[in-house]
């Protein structure tokens, strides 16, 4: 039997999490280095996956399959397609940066507290999330996926509820209250989604008699498994609801601003750039593949909701007074683009949506982490507390601007490629939705530039005077992300080559063809 | 040879990367590096130009496919370049004027601590602008299009610590984004219509598409052009953009970037030619902007804003010309090039005046400067003669041709357009004479006047004064600043003649844009004579008003029109009331609704569950006897139910 | 005598016991009432055993007795310790088991 690469990629951070948690209280720094080392090791394994993956080969590659719960036909079945392998790469790539950015986020307040343990816990929880997210991108068994989908809520709950920004406008007491509110809200929203999905998972088993994605898809394709229209629609809705909560889609979005606002910046990145991607990924993999007819049935409504998300998220971002909440609402807008691209059911839309997931992860990480550095310096999340930062910390302001420009999809940076693909893909099938969504690019410019103007430009505020510029550690976090944004904006071919074949297969799952250009059609 | 095209862009791009990432170490040499690379780009452009001249007119187009950019099923976006006569014209203008302005900036920005960053941005602009004109497809053009927008944003907001500059930069980017939305939709329609957005496919197969689709593409391209070229209704950003350093205003907001809209319409000529209705809209936009900009230019006391109004108006001429179709494309581009020379020269002259006057921009505090700044006076004067269309100078040849073309459109339309362009010429002569007289002639009003604080909007903090508020001591600018002005003055004088005499420019561009003489209802010499008469009327009025009487130091109240024109014909008030206020209300109410309605439903559910359980909790009173009663009651109910079921 | 009469007696005893548990506050009396209910059940079991002619009911009565004995041990211990700490044998005084 060959080396179980997929299991190893998830097992390494899982074991790393246990090891990190077990480091003695006094050896705090060792725990940080251990976590960083493990995350880099995972990145290496993810890179090996990318290399070993053959675009255009079998649909699911590097597969592993073992019996797990025999009585219910649950199997430990793994496999990656191009979309999965790209997202595993994104996850593994971002975690080292998240760890490095959060280096001091869980340090004890007093230096001599030798019994302080949350530091170890913080990094262990991040690695635990990574392990579960990676495994959920690999799972091809619906039940296994469901368990991971739910289980990752536990470490996320503790990360949001247990660790917050050091300084809070209303004092520590209020901070703790708001944090636990945000954490509980996050948990309840996602649990409700998960509960409905559980019902759908059981329903699927009753109808199909299997949890294996491959078996069900093959049975559906060959016609041996027939689902009644209503059954398929109900099951689809059950799955989609859970993913739409996680993604999040309007109007199920309100947990995200609270969670991202209260969590520390690296955890906020973990939420929006990594964990939420499981939702959109699952729409592509499970909704479209298991319930193609129901997906097509629901498309008009979903596209409308996605367009609302785009505009609504952007408008609310404009109205925010809190930097982190602004980024959160911007993310809601971007998730609208991703979902719109998936359900436009065109090659460009789906390729664009997949690229969007990767690019949004990188660009939000760049913007949010720099925002985190800014917030840790001044101890405030309110935009109005800043002004004139570029004069005292030009590198910080510059990286913040590049992160912002990526968020507003400036051509030449990676998000432009994906956003344009999504727009074109949507426009060719739903012109109205495409045009309304294009408004989003104007609004994106508005919230990014207003944020930059209010925080970075103008006369230097008294509290900002003497603010230090980016340190070497912080620069090392941001610079590679920016480099990647530029590289993927100019030369996204390596990524599209991996994604394209998988998109082709998804398109054939739903039996949709791209609309022909009018001129060619006329010929 | 075609490999040089990529190098043309790579040189300034490299400069931008090195200067922006290099840090403080490069502060000493940064400006030389930037200028050198801009110059290198110009030399490469010149080599390519000579090479192009060596080939026959039909074989001058060179294409170069670099790499596949976004390869996705059914969607092929390439990075490829197309260098034809139209692009070549722009390449030479951009790199030529660009290099001159780099040289000028060495002197102008000498005392600014961020000079290296400034040159980095300038190089970035050159690279983006070259990409814009060299791209062989609309998507790559879009990259350059937004790239110049970014450079413009960075340069307008170069003095970010001034709130007015930061606001102006943001405004410019936002208004441009509205235009970009048009370009983006145009590309989407192209893709669904032709399956491609390469120039060759789209422009070659225009005939195959329905007129509805062509109309959509044309209107959206026009929206894009309006944004970038500051045409009505997206013109409001250009005046504020004067917050940027003067070399920026010269390069970006006069000579090159703002003319990108004209390039876009000319490049997409095939589409516009196919839908005459859209052409009519283009002409209307051009004519309205022409008058709009000219009227605003008459009322401004800020020298740069007066010139900005003039830029808007001159681009209105160009857009109007492109709207005329094959009659006008060539002349639009010709006017664009000559305008590039004389307007850049005028801005540099204005910068030189400000440099010598402690950065004062108010023309009412100038006067009689010709004695103190002879070189600036002469070069500015030649630019002035060129822009008003003094016979023999550049502007005369290009503007006259546009006026002729407007008449040649034929019918009532032709007469109306001809009248508008003639009126525009008269107003141009009026406001430019006003600028000239107020600045260089008359009494020396700057004596005993304090200079404005550098924090004030419009004032440039680049001066050697470092914010001193003394009485200014006008002096001539250093060589690095005067030499580019002299070179541009040469261009302002001779370019028109070189292009116009013997129809050289027409023959040069005809293979790309095609050309049509049209049927002018009036003879050529009549138009020329009418133009000259208009010019004289304009100059005469201005001299009578500003040359004969002393200019008051504080602007008089003025008529309703003057007051409106000072406020840019109330465009900002409109934007403020409708867009800014409306938008603020919208976002604020949405934030409230998100909290109270969307979140409220969720929190309400949670609260009602909590309330219900709170009530149920009361049953747990802790008395064992009452628990026993409930057990007893439950047992009785179960037994009763069982018996009842038996009985039934 | 008709065995059914014993059932009536058992029901009567059970009802007296149940009423006592619900009404009385003294823990000892409540406890005795519980015993009364248990023994009423025992009587019913033995009676059913007689009626049906098999020994199942009588065996269960023995089980009940053993359980009742164990319960008396634990229950009295609780009551005694409660009395020691509170100087009262009222069941209503021990009402801490609420939120």
UniProtKB/TrEMBL annotation, chain C:
Listed transmembrane segments? 6-23, 30-53, 59-83
Question: Which coarse location class applies to the principal site listed for this UniProt protein?
Answer: membrane
What reactions does this protein catalyze? a quinone + NADH + 5 H(+)(in) = a quinol + NAD(+) + 4 H(+)(out)
Answer yes or no on keyword Heme.
no
| Keywords annotated in UniProt | Cell membrane, Membrane, NAD, Quinone, Translocase, Transmembrane, Transmembrane helix, Transport
Name its cellular compartments. Cell membrane; Membrane
Q: How does it assemble?
A: NDH-1 is composed of 14 different subunits. Subunits NuoA, H, J, K, L, M, N constitute the membrane sector of the complex.
Q: What's this protein's function?
A: NDH-1 shuttles electrons from NADH, via FMN and iron-sulfur (Fe-S) centers, to quinones in the respiratory chain. The immediate electron acceptor for the enzyme in this species is believed to be a menaquinone. Couples the redox reaction to proton translocation (for every two electrons transferred, four hydrogen ions are translocated across the cytoplasmic membrane), and thus conserves the redox energy in a proton gradient.
Instruction: Give the protein's recorded name.
Output: NADH-quinone oxidoreductase subunit K
Gene from which this protein is expressed: nuoK2
